Amino acid sequence: MSSNSYAKRSQMAPAARAVRAYAAPINRITGSIAAFDPASQGQFDLDSPPAPWIDLGWVENFQRTAATKVDALRTGPAANITIQYRMTPEARVEFDLLSWGKLQLALSGGTQQMNVLAEQPGLPPQPSGGMALPASPVQTGSTYTQIVLTSDQLADYNVGDIVAVDVDYSGQTGYLGSGAPGAYIASPLNGQTYVDYVRRITFNVSRVCAVTSSYLQLAEPLIAQPAAGMGVQKVVAFLDREGSSFFQEWSGLFIVGPDSGGRACFYYPRLQPAAGASETRQEFAAPLFSHRLHVGLRALPTTDSNDNETVLCYRSYFPAPNAAV
Questions:
Q1: Do residues 260 and 15 touch, judged by C-beta distance below 8 A?
Q2: Rounded Cα–Cα distance for residues 13 and 27 (Å)
Q3: Cα(16)–Cα(29) distance, rounded to whole angstroms?
Q4: Residue 170 and residue 184: Cα distance in Å, rounded?
Q5: Residue 15 pLDDT > 60, yes or no?
Q6: Of 56, 78, 201, 272, which has the fewest beta carbons less than 10 angstroms from its beta carbon?
Q7: Share of the chain above pLDDT 70, in %
Q8: Rounded to whole angstroms, how far apart are CA atoms 64 and 34?
Q9: How many whole angstroms separate alpha carbon 24 and alpha carbon 192?
Q10: Residue-averaged pLDDT of the chain
């Protein structure tokens, strides 16, 4: 039997119905980044990504652009090319998100993403939400999927509620938000009205799927564990504001699913928005249409510890069994 019987060229082309996207938070204070290790993480279940990766769903119109310039050094009377070198490293990625959610809105809007908190009745309306209902203090014993509250506080929540879980604002500056930065404050905000500010911008949100006698059961794990000193508040909507100063920054992972047996992965350690909020219109049977979130991101450089090379993106390929290599 020929050795080529086990090396099929037909299995070398990754083919998939769509591209799956994931994001992971970056610690903006320390600069630590969630690495995607193809040796240990490359074949994870697309529906159950390993922490800290968050599933963004399927995307369409995925387009990568390498904009790094290549120049050449010329020498001699004929100006012959002696050597080539790269300058002004740049890479971009664009795609359309098929589903809407807090992180999807943050990546497509590029700016500060806010939680509209359930507010006290009878107050003047505010574009980003008025004075919120008081927060419920988190009790000890809470986990990523269970928020322990006192019995009187539990009565304020119902199955289906979205909740934000984070600390009170008390004059902190810098990056704010547990698990993932949601805002940057250069100067302290003064006044009691700002006590809920961190919960207004936190990514530590989830939906209540059950209410027991002692805790709220969450449908999805929070990205930061609830702790005593944090508070819980209802979220009625997500909101962003065109023109605000904050830049989102996340790690990105895009996977061409293994429908053909092989899998291709594109890992961007650092991505920031390169465009403002926009949507693309997808026509259905008239008069129906959908609004897809269009995302345009720019890759920022990192350093690979194996050889200190500057990197914008890693591309890895996992051949199908018996495919030619």
A1: yes
A2: 36
A3: 38
A4: 14
A5: yes
A6: 78
A7: 94
A8: 21
A9: 33
A10: 89
Residue written as tokens 């500010």? 197
Q: Taking the CA atoms of the chain, what radius of gyration do you get in angstroms?
A: 23
| Higher pLDDT pick, 129 / 88 | 129
Q: How many residues does the chain have?
A: 325
Return the minimum-mean-pLDDT range out of 111-115, 124-128, 196-200, 313-317: 124-128
Of 151, 117, 121, nearest to 135 (Cα)? Answer: 117
| Other CB atoms within 10 Å distance of the CB of residue 201 | 22
Q: What is the token pair recorded at 251?
A: 């790690």
Question: 36-54: per-residue pLDDT in tens?
Answer: 999 988 888 999 999 899 9
User: Would you call the peptide bond into 125 cis, given omega within 30 degrees of 0 as the criterion?
Assistant: no
pLDDT tens digits, 261-317:
788 899 999 999 988 777 777 777 777 777 889 999 999 999 999 999 999 999 998
For residues 213 and 148, what is the distance between their CA atoms, to the nearest angstrom? 9
Higher pLDDT, 77 or 231: 231
State residue 153's pLDDT score: 96
